[in-house]
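Q: What residues go here?
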C-alpha cells in the first residue's frame, strides 16, 4: 500500500508511505530513485535472533534496520546515513513506527576516518550485528542516475567497498556478525574484503528461479572466527511459473518469517 506524502525537506520530490512486513511497519521514502525492496527486507530478516545491538551502515530511510527491530523486540539499532534527506526520512520512520526508544539515526559517511565515526556514535568492538546494502556500481563505470540520492545509493568509487567492510569490522563486537547484501558479480571483490577480516564466512546466493543464475548474494562473516567458508544452497525467490514468491520468501516479505541461514 502506498500513500503520497509531501516532505518539504526533500527538494521538489514526492515521497510515498509504503507498508512492509504485512503492514507491521510503514516506510516513508522517495517516490523516485532508490527504493526499499526485497533486498532490504532480506537483509533485515537475516540478523541473528540473539543479536542485541545492530549497526546499519548506509541505512537509507531505515527499512532494513526497522525490519530487524520488528522481528527482534530486544534489539537496539544505530543507523548511519550520509545523505541528509534520507537521514531525515529515516528519523521520521523511526518515530512513525514507535521505535524511538530502540533506534537512533546519525549523519555519517561510512568511509570516514575512525575519529569521525567515533564522534558520530559508532563504538568500536561493540555491535552484535553490522548490516549493509552498499552501493552496487563503481562510479567510474556506467551512467550515474540523475537524482543525487539515487546516484549516491547506487554508485561507489573503486576502493570504497573495502572501506565499508573496514568500518563494519571495526564496529563489530568480538564474535559479532557482519552481513552484506551485494550483487552476485561483485562477490570476488566483497569476498576479498571479508576474508582479510573475518572467519566463518557464509555465502548465500540468491536466485530468481531454481534454473537461473544468482543475481544477488548475502555474505556473513564472524569477527575473530577461524572457521572455514561455507557456500550455501541458493535461496530461490520464485516458483517455476508466475511472479509470486515461494512460501518461505513470501512469509519473510509479509513479516511472518525470518531468514534461517
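A:
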Amino acid at each position: 500500500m502506498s500513500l503520497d506524502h509531501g516532505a518539504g525537506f526533500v527538494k521538489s520530490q514526492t515521497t510515498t508511505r509504503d507498508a512492509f512486513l504485512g503492514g507491521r511497519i510503514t516506510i516513508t521514502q522517495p517516490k523516485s530513485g532508490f527504493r526499499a525492496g526485497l533486498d532490504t527486507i532480506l537483509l533485515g530478516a537475516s540478523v541473528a535472533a540473539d543479536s542485541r545491538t545492530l549497526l546499519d551502515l548506509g541505512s537509507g530511510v531505515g527499512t532494513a534496520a526497522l525490519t530487524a527491530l520488528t522481528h527482534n523486540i530486544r534489539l537496539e539499532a544505530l543507523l548511519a546515513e550520509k545523505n541528509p534527506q534520507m537521514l531525515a526520512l529515516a528519523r521520521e520512520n523511526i518515530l512513525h513506527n514507535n521505535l524511538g526508544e530502540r533506534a537512533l539515526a546519525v549523519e555519517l559517511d561510512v568511509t570516514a576516518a575512525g575519529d569521525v565515526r567515533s564522534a558520530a556514535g559508532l563504538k568500536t568492538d561493540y555491535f552484535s550485528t553490522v548490516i549493509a546494502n552498499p552501493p552496487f556500481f563503481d562510479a567510474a563505470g556506467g551512467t550515474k542516475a540523475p537524482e543525487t540520492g539515487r546516484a549516491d545509493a547506487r554508485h561507489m568509487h573503486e576502493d570504497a567497498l573495502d572501506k565499508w567492510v573496514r568500518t563494519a569490522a571495526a564496529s563489530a563486537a568480538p564474535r559479532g556478525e557482519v552481513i552484506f547484501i551485494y550483487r552476485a558479480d561483485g562477490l570476488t571483490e566483497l569476498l576479498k574484503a571479508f576474508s582479510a577480516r573475518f572467519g566463518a564466512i557464509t555465502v548465500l546466493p540468491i536466485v530468481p528461479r531454481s534454473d537461473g543464475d544468482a543475481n544477488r548474494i548475502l555474505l556473513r562473516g564472524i569477527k575473530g572466527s577461524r572457521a572455514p567458508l561455507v557456500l550455501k544452497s541458493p535461496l530461490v525467490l520464485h516458483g517455476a511459473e508466475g511472479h509470486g514468491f515461494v512460501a518461505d520468501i513470501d512469509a519473510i516479505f509479509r513479516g511472518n518469517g525470518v531468514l534461517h541461514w
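A: Context that may help when evaluating the design: The CA atoms of residues 138 and 156 lie 5 Å apart. The chain has eight helices and 14 strands.
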